[in-house]
Amino acid sequence: MAREKRRGGRQGDSKIPEPDLLPIMNIILVLILAMLTMAAFVPLGVITTKAPKLSGGGRASSQQQPQDDKPKLSLTIFMVQEGYNLSMFGKTYKAPKDNPEAKAFIPKRDENGEQVYDFEALRKKLVEVKEKNPEEEQVTVLAHDDALYSSVISTMDAIRLTDDKKPMFPMVAFGAGIF
Fold this sequence. Notes:
By secondary structure, the chain is α/β, with parallel strands linked by helices. The protein has helices at 2-6, 22-39, 119-132, 149-160, and strands at residues 75-80, 83-88, 91-93, 105-107, 109-111, 114-116, 138-143, 171-174. It is built from 4 helices and 8 strands. It is elongated, with a radius of gyration of 31 Å.
């Protein structure tokens, strides 16, 4: 009789007992928690950027700080289809159609029939700008809608460090498209 009770009832019943899922659910919960904990230690390739400031906001007249005589650089790099346009001290220097060697314009260069952004020329130009304005650290990058992601990232890399790995403009802000 004791055997019949353990089997789940009478001898003629073919009822299968319900499996105990609690141990399996405990193991799965522990595995999920372990994976979430380990995910915090996985290195990810992240490029830090800051959103550009749209406005400084108003201050009370008693809290205003004295302004320097030297104007702020406000360096902005425009990635346009023809190359790079630079904006400094509130002025945008565009290349005239007949003179691509304008002061702050870096045209695309041809490599095997393809036009690509000239990252080295941009870096050299920014080294000149940094020498004249050593205290400046911030730059804003605006890219054309058709600019490739890899070109934008390479541009940001060219802006951050000099050839000998010294910091040039470490605070890069990325703005929305320009067209």
